[in-house]
Each structure stands twice: as C-alpha cells, then as structure tokens.
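Action item from last week, closing it out:
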Amino acid sequence: MSDIFRLRVTPVLCAIALLSWIVQGPLLTASGLNTLSDSFGAVVRHGSGLHLMMNLGFIAIAGAKTEWQIGATKTALLVAACTVLGTVTQFTFSGPGFAGMSAAGYGLLGYALISEASAEKLTQTWCILAIVLLAEIVFQSETLSIYTHITSILIGGGYAMFGSLFGSKDPVLKPMEMTHLSPVIAIINETDEDDALEAERSLLDEGLDGMFVLFHKGQVLGVTGFGLDEQVHDVAWLSWTYLAKSHTGEGYGSQMMNGLLGKLKDRGIRKIFIATSDYDDFGTPLYADAHRMYEDFGAEVELTLSGFHGAREAKIIYGLNNPEAPATDAFPAAEDTGLHIQGYGHEAESDQVMGLRWKEAPEGVSGLENVLARLRQDRAKKALLAIPSDLSDANGAALESHGLAKAGQLNDYYSSGLHQVWWECSIVGK
C-alpha cells in the first residue's frame, strides 16, 4: 500500500481526466475540433462515462506498473511522447474529431505488458496486442482513435524492449531506487514473510544507501547491499540479499556478490561479514540456498551462536575477504589491558540475549558480576561479550572465572591478526 502513495505521474493523469469531466462535462460533439491545436486541447476530454472509465483503468493499472519500474520522470516523458506523436498521427491520417487520453493509456499499457513478458513470451505478447488492435480496426474504426492506439502501443512497447535490444544483454547491478521497493519485497517474501516485513520497514525508515538490485529487461531479479560496521571503518555487513526463486541456479547470486565486492573495493572495504541463521521450516533449512551461495563464493562460517534467535535457531556469521580491497592501516592496539563492563543491551532479533557493553580499563575485569546479577533479575537467557583478541588473551582467565566461555571469533575483524573474540554466558538457572 505504501508504494501507491509514492506514485506521482499516474494519480496526476487520473486527476486531470476526472477534473476535466467534472468541470467541463462530457465532450458530446466533435464539431468544435477542427485543427491540430483543437485535437491537443481535447486529449483530456472524454465523450462518455464508459470512455472515461476505460482510459482511467488503463492509466491507473498500467501507469502504476510503469512508474514503479522506471520512475516518475521517465513515465512522464513516455506519456508526453505518446500523447504528442499519437495525436499527430491520428490527425494526419483521419483528421480532427477525436478526444480522450487513450494515447497515454495505450502507451503505458504497451510498456507494462512488454516489460513484464519474458524473452520466451515476448513474441506471443506482441501478437496478442496486434490482434487487439486488428479487432479495433475491423469492428470499431469509426469510433476509436485507431492510429493513436497503434502509435502509442508501439512507443510504449518499443521503449520497454529498448534496453534488451540495445543495452546490456546481461543483468546489471544498479543502485536501488524507491521504485524497486515493491518487487524487492515480493522477492524477499518468497523466502521469508517476516524478513519481508522487516526489510520494508528498514528500507523505508533508514533509506536505500548501500542497497543494489540486479536488474534485467525492466525486471528486478534480486537484491543485495551492505551496511558499514560501527566500529571498524574498512569492514561491512551484508544487508538484505535475496534472489527471485525463478532465477536460482543461473549464476545470478554469484554475479550479485561479485558486483557488490567490486563496489566495496571502491569504498576501501577489506572484509564483509554475513549474519544469517540455521532456521528449519518443518525439516527444510530455510536459508540453505543462500548458505550454498555464500560458500560457493568463498565465505566461511566463523561464528555460531546457539540459541540466539530461539531454542532451536542459532545465529551464524560468515566471513568473506574482499580479494580486490586495497591494503589498509592496522587497527590501533589497546593501550590498557583490562575491561570494565558498563551495562548491556538487547541483541536485535534475539530471544532474550543481551550484549555486554564495555570499555578499556587499566587491568583486570570489573563490573561484570554486577551486570550478570542484573541480567538474572531481568530474566535474560544469555549474555554475549565481543572484544578484541588482545584483550581476550589478557583477560581470559578472569572471564572464565565468572562463568563465560569462548563461543568463537570473527577473524581479522579489527585488522589482519587482530580478531573479535566472542564470549558467552548462560544466565538461565543461575
């Protein structure tokens, strides 16, 4: 529903037609239409209620489809081209005496149908359009603007085909725009309805910076993106990455990842982490295809946190080095060797798992016992602590004495050789 409110051209066209009908009334006679200028003035007029509703239907449905795909500016230019050329063609071959917004409606219809057609059904779709136009010529040539319809269908359909005929034959990874949101959410929804809802909320609230779509012949085939790490400037996390199920197994997943790594290289990103899970949907691993794609591309599981999302759902973090990334400066080593645990916060998408907040201290571990006591009072299930490997080495014995155990590490997180070590502590029952 939110996509409807982002349309610009389509509702304006519908509003103009309706206002013209309300203010000027139906155009019941064409006696005043004698020149080409008169014909242009009549493009927003309609002769009957049925005439008006037919054109509004074409514009509303095909216009929305077109505008979501190519945006408001290109849709407006398409409508203008169809209106001008369609009106001139009709006037040239049949003279004055016609009205209505069928030029816009048929142009948008042509674009919407041809852009939606697969390569295998493209000829079939053009044949269907040709049959419809032929039927108009045979049965309604005296009452319809036939030449306008033919011209506009050719312009709209031709524009939809232009990219596949003269542009790249392969899908391209391009920055995501708001016009892509609806097909992107539909693709995510094929795999996970909850992720689709969360992705729509996130993309609307936080924007599309760092997001890309795999685009081919006017269609969105997949989505991927990244978010920069909050601690380390040359590390990123993979964002929503999904491929339409109809295109799995065609190498597009690897193409998206390869394209994304190239863009990350330009940002100086040396490593990307991928957070996922082992969610099982009645015996079927929901993200199995995604995991295979990550692994085929060279990503390796670096950390598994059991029970993070639920009793039977672990959080899995893959690590993928960017082979094209330039060399970066080493992360500065800690000046102090101790840890002070300041507090905690709920880990996103977790089942009562709390992340411990810390800062460097001169030496030793302080504040941990008090924080663990508060977690027990708050009925938390697990506590997590993620710290640099040098601090982990210096304070490992103290952390173990408080009941924490190593869960794993993200290799080279801070810089080459300086890892992020994760410690965990079960709170339930303590």
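Closing note: The chain has a mean pLDDT of 88.
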